[in-house]
Structure formats: C-alpha cells, structure tokens
Request: fold
Amino acid sequence: MIISHRHKFIFLHCRKSAGSSFKISTSRYLGPDDLVIGGLKDGLQHGIRPPRGMVRTAYRHPHWPSVMFKLARGSYWSFVSDSIKQHYVSSLGAIPEHASAAAVKAAFPEEWQRYKKICIVRNPWDQLWSEYKWRFKRKAFKSGFDDFVKRQEQVGHSDRYNLNWDIYTIDNTVSVDRILYYENLSQDMADTFAWLSIDWDGWTPNAKSTAQEAGLEAADNYRAHYTDETRAIVARIRQREIEQFNYVF
Reply:
C-alpha cells in the first residue's frame, strides 16, 4: 500500500497483481513523509530506499520481538519493514500491506476524502495460479495446484487469497477512482502517472517473478493448469470480480 502526500494518491495493493512492481517504480517519486507498506525488500534490491519518515516511524514504534534477532543478522531494513507493518496492524488489519479499502478509509479519513485512489486488478484464474507459484516457492503450500484451488473453496471468502475484492470495494461497491489492469499494465501505468502529474520514465521492474525459482514452468499459460473442476471453483469463489471486470477464462 502507498499513501503519497506529495502526489495526493492512495495505492491499494491487490495480491499477485503487479502491486510490488508498481510500488517499486513509484517509490522513486515519493516524498520524505510518504508511506509505503510492504515491498521494501524488493525496492532495496533495485537501490530504492523507503521515504525517510518511515525510518523515523520504525524507530518510534519498533516491533521489539524481532529487533535484536534481525539486527544481529544484519537485517536492518527487515527491522524497518517489520516495524512499519506492526505499527499499522491495529488500524489496517493483520496484513497491512494489503489493507482493505474500508480499513484505509477508517485509518486515514482525511486522505481518503482528498486523495485519488487507485488499484491494479488481474484475471482471477491467472491471479490464483500466480499466488500458488508464490506460495509453492515459499513452501507455504506444498500440495498440487488442484488441491490448492479446492482448499480456497473450502475455506471460503475468509481466506486471504480470496480477499482482493475487499481491497478496492466498500460494501461491495468499487471505491477507487482508477483501476489499472494487469493485462494492460504498461499503458495503464503510463496513463495513471500522467493523471497523477508524475513524469514517469516507463521503468517497471518484474518484482516477484517466481516460476523458475519455484521449479515451475516459467511465463506459462495459466489455462494449462486448470481442470474443468478447478476452473469452475474459481468461477464461483471469484464471481464478483469476474462479473465486475468481464473476465473470462
């Protein structure tokens, strides 16, 4: 998530929809008092440090259980990132980098009223396959893709993989001013930066390319990994997104 006081916008970060790439590219233009939650490590890999005000916040509100462990291991920026996340858990929820629109509106009512609000959406079938690859790499889910999809329906919409809808809606109504499409990302980013009066240079890093590292097919077609059953499951559990944006398998 980003709240930019310099450019008067809020970026709501949907899962596995190029949000980290957007944040890294955007972070180069942020002001010292702007806020970026999540993606700090990805930005540092490209030589981009967070706004200075975030470091001050990390020291004022440290997450003490992790401080000595991470600093002892030389993970200064991990300490900063973790402290920032922990500072906003109480106001933005357990995963503040993917905070819901309702939580952001409640925590930052003035900014919500005045600032432009944007997000990126992605075809739900493609997005869930990407989510699986990411979880597979991190060993958070070690079974096959079919089992992963079936688990989503068993858990239902309370599961964190199914909550992108809440990130950009309030009371089931889209509550952002501009939606970018993953499938047309470069052009949509160019148009959005122009809309924000930011002189963007066109650079968008591939922040979390996970297929090869995970031992899965690289840059593959998500359709090849679905059965009729799992395709239908996604159609049910992601129905609102599919209908809202006219996505097809």
